[in-house]
Design goal:
Layout: E1 4-10, H1 14-25, E2 30-34, H2 59-72, E3 76-79, E4 82-86, E5 92-96, E6 99-108, E7 112-114, E8 130-131, H3 134-137, E9 145-149, H4 153-162, E10 168-173, H5 182-190, E11 194-198, E12 200-207, E13 211-218, E14 224-227, E15 237-240, E16 244-246, E17 276-278, H6 290-315, H7 335-346, E18 352-358, H8 362-375, E19 381-387, H9 392-397, E20 405-409, E21 415-421, H10 428-440, H11 448-455, E22 461-467, H12 474-487, E23 491-497, H13 502-507, E24 515-518, E25 524-525, H14 530-538
Parallel strand pairs: 1-2, 1-6, 2-3, 6-17, 8-15, 9-10, 9-15, 10-11, 18-19, 21-23, 22-23
Antiparallel strand pairs: 4-5, 5-6, 7-16, 12-13, 13-14, 18-20, 20-21, 22-24, 24-25
Amino acid sequence: MRDLYDLIIIGSGSAGLTAGIYAGRAKLKTLVLDRDRVGGQIKITSEVENYPGILRTSGAELTQTMRKQAENFGVKFLQTVVESVDFTQDIKKVRTVEGEYEALAVVVATGAVPRKLGFAGEEEFRGHGIGYCATCDGEFFTGMDVFVIGAGFAAAEEAIFLTRYAKKVTVIARAQEFACSKTIAERVLAHPKIEVKFQTEILEVGGDTVPRYATFVDNRTGQTWRYDPPGKDHTFGVFVFVGYVPQSAEYAGQLRLDDRGYILTDENMRTNVDGVFAAGDIRPKELRQLVTAVSDGALAATCAEKYVAQKKERLGLSDEEQSVASGPRDSFFDEELREQLVPVFQRFENQVGLAAFLDDSDFSEEVKAFLTEFGGLADKVKIEFLRKGEDLAKEKRLNVTLFPSFAVLGLDGSYTGVQFHGVPGGHEINSFILALYNAAGPGQAVEEDVLEKILAVKNKANLKIGVSLSCTLCPDVVTASQLIALKNPLVEAEMIDVSRFPDFKNKYTIMSVPAIIVNDGKPSFGKKSLDELLALLSA
């Protein structure tokens, strides 16, 4: 039995890590390969301030968090050097110094590195005064002098951009004139905050923890000169814009590249080879930023997931035939999540119960392992395990129709109407914890008018919410459904992991999530607010 992954991701920068997160959440058996430490270019950035939703973090901290997210979804990482690839068959082969790895699909996310000049101090102060992306780092040089190295379009554009922050921008160009459109060149030359020095090169940047001086040479006269920033504690910035080098050499024989060596893709990150995708800075693009890399990675993994499903069906492959299946994980709750749950559990006012009904499937064993570990964290949650058919009266009272299942019970052992069919991993852990918190009290505050609407449902109703653990819209629908059930004893809310219950999926022809089924009727799809769910219950 050979080692066969669903997906191999080559490169662990922002695009590769995001692809890993999305692939892991989609239950793909995924391996990430990289010759360097995880993180790509962003890991050397001391401060990240322009990523939506994050006020400030370091590149290293952000990428380590992304790696932890991927690992929590079962993604494996290996630091190794890729020597060659073979994308000519259904099974893609990636040969490394550690050995050969096979997968149904591959995402190439090896990136493009800024071209370096090799002057003294360039490597030492990279990320600490010397940068390669004005959009990323320009704000950190507010009120300082900045040098821009280069004479092409990027150098001219970025010089203009940097005038938003810098006290003065000096362009250092080895050429005799700009190698870009005259319109852009004229804007640079006419800008009051920009000085241009043609036929000049940078020789050295020196200092301590940050740059304190730089030396240059005028190639026309051979004369060198030195720049020292005013004030003993002052520093300055140097931005190098002399092009990028795409890391695509290993793929040149099989993937279509442009004339600069970037891998060409369509809008869904597909290359010219079926089952091979490219994401991030390895693609030709206008904006090379963390946010565009993350977008590429998410789309590549999502399209790879669809491709893998189709390929498995065509080849007649089952998960059991892949020896690298993730298997039981060491822990469902990492240390960080455990710490986050402690204050929540401390607020539980009453004891609640979980009644788990298990069959003989491997999935039941996974559910049991999850609940057992969880039971060790929450002392106010009592868990009871029952085999299918062991207590038929209880199964009927709790309306258990799908196995495995676990239901939330109140203080007196009564059924709260909340039931789970699946392991609530990923974002669904939030809906699971909220259900217990609302059942144990004090629970979420509910406005009086909202409570009145919930109690206005006068007929018995069953809400089944079909979810995928890779769905970002599902948890809100599950949480709202459970809140309705917890407040109104006539309503039941069941979370069902669609991927684990194919008969359920086929019965309702579910091809999108969240899927909301009221009283076993025709499903509706998409995110629904609490009011919209109540409208479905009243229809």
